[in-house]
Amino acid sequence: MRFKTQGLAIALVVSSLLTGCSLDGDDGKDGANGNNGSNGSNGLNSLIRHQSLATGSTDCFFGGTKIESGLDSDGNGTLEDSEVTATTLDCHANTVSTSGSTLPYTVLRGDIDDGAEPGRKFEIRNGGYGSDMVKHPTHTNQFYALTDRGPNANYTGDQGKGKLFPTPDYTPRIGLFELQANGDVKQIREILLKDTNGNAISGLPNSSALGGTGETPYAILADGSVEVLREDMNAPYDETTNPIKLDDFGLDGEGLVALSDGTFWVSDEYGPHIVHFDADGKEIGRINAFANDTRDVFHLPAEFAYRRANRGMEGLTVTPDEKTLVGIMQSTMYLPDSSVKNLDIVRIVTVSLEDGAVSQYLYKQQKPQNSQSGIVALSATEFVLIERDGAFFAQNPDAMKHLYKIDISNATDLETFAVSGDWQQDAQLGLTKNGQTLEQLVLNQGWEGLTNAGIMPVEKTFVADLVAEVAYPHDKLEGLWLINDHTIGVLNDDDFATWSTGGVLEQKYLDAGHSKVDANTLYIIDGLELTPEQ
């Protein structure tokens, strides 16, 4: 049995080997083709659209082209906004050259001898739009600009020191200007400033009760002679019956705000006053430090009446929500007197337009007696301001015309500073220590006299040097036009192209060779970092 079993197993193995070595058979015939599948849907078309951008565009301020692309999802052959997946911008270059774009002007008077060029007459130009500038609330390529009190010069006459007014009937005004595609500036409108009754105001000084500092006005008559300006120019001066002509509505405007409701706020160097004007230039409200002024809707702290002559509230802006005015004095106030003149301490004030609530902060200048001559809000606490000297670059290569960003959020509010012991709030002088004003403390102890007590100035960051940017040739950098978060426009005060040396009037020249007359000139600086941090 064991033998038979082995034989069977061998037979099976051999059989398996023979089977594994056999050849494959021929392939069978192909089966019939299956039915075609249904057609797939067509792919989406890619679309492109081009849009020309005008000057003032939020995408390209100087104009250009916006190129948008995407897929035609709804198949209507038109690229809808919801279908845009990519956008590129081809922006034009800055159309305002580094030499700037001059504003148009007319001639107010051309019959006065040029004291700088004997035998020649000079032009008093209108002009004068440079005390401040501000963007139009809705038209992005337009701006408003402000004049001051009108052409004037230092002069001493029979009634003492004062100002010589070659056009004493000049009315301060606001101009509306538009930047053209080629970089030119066109004037659109002129708004004369008026009193509460709708009468045109002047730029003549106020009475002493409302901030006047005793500046006596003088006029140049048609024959070239100079006389004190009086109520009746056909009668001789008399202190009682024909006194010096003053104007309690007169303004020396320096700061400008344009609100979205069409009204304006103007700050000045006389009071200082902050005056509210309607869209046609008529006064509708006022803020100042004089408690007895019945025109006031709110009051500044009493210490602001100690402004230094010709260095009042040089800058004014409003927070983006249009609820708070923010003003800055030009230089150190005479608080309490001129002994503090040569300092670097400057006051900033904020006024709520809802209830008149006031805050005060301190700014530390780069150099004593510099000028803060413009301010514009980036946010509720951040601002760009001008700090400058009074030099012409052509005559002084060290001329300083700077922009700084400041932040008041960590600065000390002088109105809420905790008083006790030596520190008190004086009704006339504001915050004091042992009866000394903050200006006196800086004079006697330096800024440490304040910071050691916890009084901190606003934080400041350098933004731009206009001399380095455009070889800025003018002495008075004063206007700021915030265009966007990287572009700003600046404007100078040309003093109506009028200057004086030793009380003698002359053309205002930019250079010692008298080859170029000063003029209101717009410069636009881009590539800046102006984005608020808050």
Automatic annotation (TrEMBL):
> Any idea where the DUF7151 domain is?
45-88
What protein am I looking at? Esterase-like activity of phytase family protein
Superkingdom, natural source = Bacteria
Query: Known InterPro entries for this protein?
Result: DUF7151, Phytase-like_dom
Domain (Phytase-like): residue spans on this chain: 131-496
